[in-house]
Please model this.
Amino acid sequence: MSRTPAVTQLLALDSLLEPDEIEIRDTVRRFADERLRPHIADWFEHAHIPVRDLAKELGGLGVLGMHLDGYGCAGLSATTYGLACLELEAVDSGIRSLVSVQGSLAMFSIHHWGSEEQKLEWLPRMATGEAIGCFGLTEPDFGSNPGGMRTTAKHHGTDWVLNGTKMWITNGSIADVAVVWAQTDDGIRGFVVPTDTPGFSAPEIHKKMSLRASITSELVLEDVRLPAAAVLPEARGLTGPLTSLGEARFGIVFGSMGAARDCLETAIDYAKTREVFEKPLAAYQLTQAKLADMAVEVGKGHLLAYHLGRLKDRGEITAAQVSTGKLNNVREAIAVARECRTILGANGITLEYPVIRHANNLESVLTYEGTSEVHQLTIGRALTGESAFR
Model:
């Protein structure tokens, strides 16, 4: 059994959780420590990750779509899902991204907006990891403004024909199914696209310095012909994709604190064993001040995540509250990673320790599922009643 993290002990965080939540969290933590942590530095360094094998193992663990009901999904609470995200991102943001895109974007979209036939066809296989999904919203020229997307879906008889390009798509090149959003004569609609459909391709994006233990791709749709049954019947306009993004952002509120916690634990362990001027680095006031300040921020981030989890479990959470969580927790996590790097000195830039890897990954987490600026404006709109997006 893994030791209890120092920040958890400091603020008695487990006292805020139910026994079943702790049990599931610890199960995910053990899996992460035993199956993922020994390999993650190599996966990151070589930009290669065995997604197919991991998806099946994660499906067996029960974390794929774990917060959804039915169709082979566990139907667990949002807080429990968040705790799983926290433990997975304590290993690497790329691992949490795999779970998040599968469960909170692709599976959630089909579960929430899809037909019964779509749900029965895809969700049970996605829950086990047999089938992998991706989510195509962002385009080369449209990230923060998804409403401007240029991907189109046009009627050809009873069929739909899709044309366009999506960018920065996690799991894209190994996915079996893509949830693709496109402009139609009736506004933005979502489509369930089997990736073996003629005209669909997903070239992988290389030369990344962040999220290297994650597959990132472009989606290219060239006269992709789909039957009428491919459209998500309950999704119209931007509400569909933005609701799904809210689910993924919620996981990041927890996950980013996993990365921050891992950096802090690494820095504490290092400071206790590294001797400088004949005494441990941890015995110096400046080091203790850094550790104390970071522990406070990581602790507050956990408390915020737990609070938002309880709100979501009661069905009371708002988009502005999720934005508050992502803005604060990712911003603090990346600051913690950078500060921990200073405690490790030159060792902090090597993959022998996880700190620089987390810092690099968090640069992507800071941007995706809504940039910090977008979340600031979402919070500003909630505070003032005025929209500053345009």
